[in-house]
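hiii so um. not sure if this is the right channel but i have a protein structure encoded as tokens and i wanna go backwards to a sequence. like what aa goes where. can anyone help
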């Protein structure tokens, strides 16, 4: 048998494996597990979007390869109109936008499009693992930017060593943030853009949760900063916007050279998304209101955070995302406490250590709860945690 590529050795061990095993064991034993682990919308894709997909799929034009340069023109026109309406920034659909097969794909391929062996990425910690893993697989090195509670889980750009800044090709950001739920304002983005312009770095902003603002909060875009188009590429996703995770459709906006570079790699790797999916997404972003899902997320957040804080926890209410980032009690590691919750309360959570060194001491609790209709499963999770806390 042929030897596998050595780059796969760069992938760290799957740190969620033990929790997944314990979850499967609990379910096999007949336990009623309340799953606060998965960050996947539990509500269905809006019916109008499904109808739009059905209509587009009946058009034989969508059955062939999408031979457009950057993605179905109707899709790119729709998403750039949405971006201008949401953030006030005009984009050229032909040169400053790109169809993605989900934002994860775009993030991974950006690393491969820019990182050569020995190149450097500046990566937040804790963070979605795609940034670090794909930098390493491409042969690059990583310098960690700690996300600390005292800094609002924003990286301290002034703490990045000058030599690392000079070597870096990419700086990865993700706001609203997974796993911490933190948000970034325009002041932070101005500093980040200035930093990247100073050191000739491409700022990659993973904005997958930009449409998941709660209580009327509207997340900012890095591209709203003056001069951002010189150094920013920002990725968005329909997964969280319209409960479309399985549809695999997203988009990149920003610097025209970065868009073209990513597109050059993609054109040799994929043949774009099924055009009917692209057109259904275009319909969604121009016609569909998914605010009912956000109201349900807000209700679940309030039940969970208020309930935990009534037990003496110190958990802030996130302004955006589906996540509550909760400190674990003293005497436990994040993995130990997640295991305790699963084994003794049948409540599944994700240990913060799975997102990096600086995630230790926290667990991530997701507000996308399968089987929950109106917050009742979240309330039950709080009651179960209360019972084990009282022992």
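sure thing!! here u go:
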């Amino acid at each position: 048998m042929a030897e596998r590529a050595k780059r796969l050795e760069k992938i760290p061990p799957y740190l969620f494996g033990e929790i997944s095993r314990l979850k499967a064991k609990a379910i096999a034993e007949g336990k009623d597990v309340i799953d606060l682990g998965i960050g996947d919308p539990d509500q269905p894709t809006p019916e109008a979007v499904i109808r739009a997909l059905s209509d587009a799929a009946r058009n034989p034009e969508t059955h062939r390869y999408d031979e457009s340069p950057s993605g179905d023109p109707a899709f790119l026109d729709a998403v750039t109109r949405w971006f201008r309406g949401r953030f006030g920034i005009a984009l050229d659909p032909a040169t400053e936008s790109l169809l993605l097969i989900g934002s994860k794909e775009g993030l991974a391929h950006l690393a491969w499009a820019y990182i050569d062996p020995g190149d450097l990425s500046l990566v937040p910690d804790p963070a979605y693992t795609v940034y670090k893993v794909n930098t390493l697989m491409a042969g690059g090195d990583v310098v960690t930017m700690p996300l600390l509670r005292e800094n609002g889980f924003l990286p301290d750009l002034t703490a990045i060593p000058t030599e690392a800044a000079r070597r870096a090709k990419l700086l990865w950001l993700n706001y609203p943030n997974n796993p911490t739920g933190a948000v970034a304002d325009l002041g932070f983005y101005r500093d980040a853009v200035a930093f990247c312009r100073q050191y000739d770095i491409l700022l990659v902003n993973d904005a997958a949760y930009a449409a998941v603002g709660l209580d009327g909060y509207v997340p900012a875009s890095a591209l709203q900063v003056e001069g951002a188009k010189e150094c920013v590429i920002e990725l968005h996703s329909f997964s969280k916007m319209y409960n479309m995770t399985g549809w695999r459709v997203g988009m990149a906006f920003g610097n025209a050279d970065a868009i073209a570079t990513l597109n050059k790699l993609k054109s040799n790797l994929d043949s774009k998304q099924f055009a009917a999916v692209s057109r259904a997404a275009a319909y969604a972003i121009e016609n569909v209101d998914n605010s009912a899902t956000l109201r349900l997320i807000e209700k679940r957040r309030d039940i969970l955070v208020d309930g935990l804080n009534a037990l003496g926890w110190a958990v802030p209410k996130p302004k955006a995302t589906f996540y509550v980032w909760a400190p674990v009690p003293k005497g436990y590691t994040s993995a130990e406490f997640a295991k305790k919750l699963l084994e003794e309360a049948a409540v599944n959570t994700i240990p913060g250590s799975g997102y990096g060194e600086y995630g230790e001491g926290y667990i991530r609790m997701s507000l996308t709860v399968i089987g929950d209709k109106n917050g009742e499963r979240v309330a039950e999770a709080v009651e179960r945690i209360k019972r084990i806390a009282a022992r």
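oh and The chain has 13 helices and twelve strands.
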